[in-house]
Each structure stands twice: as C-alpha cells, then as structure tokens.
Write a structure and sequence with these properties.
- The protein has two domains: 4-159, Aminopeptidase (3-Layer(aba) Sandwich), CATH 3.40.630; 162-245, Glutaredoxin (3-Layer(aba) Sandwich), CATH 3.40.30.
- Helices cover 25% and strands 27% of the residues.
- The protein is built from six helices and 13 strands.
- The protein is globular and about 55 Å long.
Length: 246
C-alpha cells in the first residue's frame, strides 16, 4: 500500500510542499503557504501527499471554511488535486480522491465539490477525472463549472458576488491569496515589472475568509481583470505581463 502523509502543525515545518519542492524562487511562497496552513489546519483543512519527492497531493477543507466564493450546506471543498510527471498512471490520483470522499462521508458531509472548467485551464481541476467518480455539474459561470458529488438532495452553488465577473477599475487588477506557494514570486515579478515600466496595476491580496467568499469572480487562489472584465484564473509573471502590454 502506498504511504501518504497528512500535514499537521507538528510536522509542517519539516515536510515539503509537493508543488514547490526545490525551486529557490518559490521558497518565500512556501514559507507563506505554511503560515497560511497553520491557521487553516485548525479549521479542518487537509493537505495529504505521497511520502515521496514528487508532486502528488490533494488539498481540501470544509466548504464553509474554504477560501472560495462557493456556498453549500455541510459540504467539503477540494482546492487542488495534482499528480505530476513519472507519478502519473499509478493510481495515486484515485487513492487521493477516494480518501477525500471517504473523509467527507466519515464527517457526515452532504457532499464534496470542486471548481473546474468546460475546457482544461491551468491550475484548474481536470473535469473528466472527477466525472469518473460521480461528480456532476451543479452550477456554472461562463466557462467555469462547479462539480459536486452529492450524498443527499443538498447541493452547493457559486455565490452571487462571483457571478459579476467584472469590476469598476479599468486598470489591470489581480486578486490572489497565499493558498498557493507560487503566488508570492508571481506578485514580486509583477510589481517589479510595473515599477520598471510605469504601469498601473492593482494588487488585491485576499487575506481573510470573508474576502475570499466575497470576491467578484470565480476564485481558487488567483484572478486577473483587465478593462474591468475578468480575463482568467492563470497565474501571471513578468513574461506574461510583457506580452500583454506589448
């Protein structure tokens, strides 16, 4: 049987975060994420990973405590499920998802949900994989869909504020949280590029559950707006900004 590790307050400092194991430019992000996790673990947040040097993990939490603009009565929410590289094709994804589903049943949740999209997008769950296990679309906003595996008649839904997908400010505006260890370096590069090129960019840090629940768009840990309209959920860096403004 494969060996897995659940991050907890007593092992968090010594364990690696799968998605940013050794890349030096993301180590500040790893530090930020671990500080973020220390508080979230108290709320029932689970980060479960394969006990190996690889990107194999799932991250989920009770929906009412999850930093996403989704509501539901007594549901679990999956932030991320990632199996990368040579670890693919070995059943790790199935084992991790089944663990989350079983935990949801043990805790007598009404179901478990995640945000995905009609067509594959970066940093977004693979819709077809979840459908194999009975997840179905229960709500949508444009190309984005809320998938849920319901254990009863209850079902989750996007909050009304998430359906806006627009803001008043016309400058490039980025919403982000420290839930993802990659965001810290992205923000650093974006701010440096903006200062060097005298470009106005608004950075909105989502640093509380209340802010996360009330963002004006689909949000898992990052959202881009341009000319007042939602553009994408893709993390941006200096190169991407350069292409956008050229």
């Amino acid at each position: 049987m494969n060996e897995y590790v659940n991050l907890a307050c007593d092992n968090l400092d010594e364990e690696h975060l799968c998605c940013a194991i050794s890349d030096k430019k993301h180590q500040q992000g790893v530090k930020n994420k671990k500080e973020w996790l220390k508080e979230r673990i108290k709320d029932g947040h689970v980060f479960r990973k394969l006990n190996a040097q690889g990107k194999v993990f799932i991250e989920f939490a009770p929906l009412d405590k999850a930093w996403c603009p989704v509501d539901g009565n007594n549901f679990m929410y999956i932030y991320c499920l990632w199996v990368a590289g040579s670890f693919k094709g070995n059943g790790y994804g199935r084992e991790l998802l089944e663990y989350a589903i079983n935990e949801s049943r043990i805790q007598e949740k009404n179901g478990i949900c995640t945000i995905t999209s009609k067509k594959k997008k970066p940093f977004m769950a693979e819709k077809k994989f979840f459908e194999k296990y009975g997840f179905k679309v229960v709500d949508s906003i444009g190309d984005y869909e809320l998938l849920s595996l319901n254990f009863c008649d209850e079902q989750p839904k996007f909050r009304d504020n998430a359906r806006k997908m627009e803001i008043e400010d016309k400058d490039l505006t980025i919403y982000y949280s420290e839930q993802c260890p990659f965001t810290a370096n992205c923000i650093k590069e974006i701010e440096e590029y903006a200062n060097e090129n005298d470009i106005r960019i608004n950075i909105e840090k989502i640093d509380s559950l209340e802010k996360a629940k009330n963002v004006p768009c689909v949000f898992n840990n990052w959202a881009n707006f341009k000319d007042g309209k939602f553009v994408s959920n893709a993390l941006m860096n200096k190169n991407m900004l350069e292409k956008m403004f050229k």
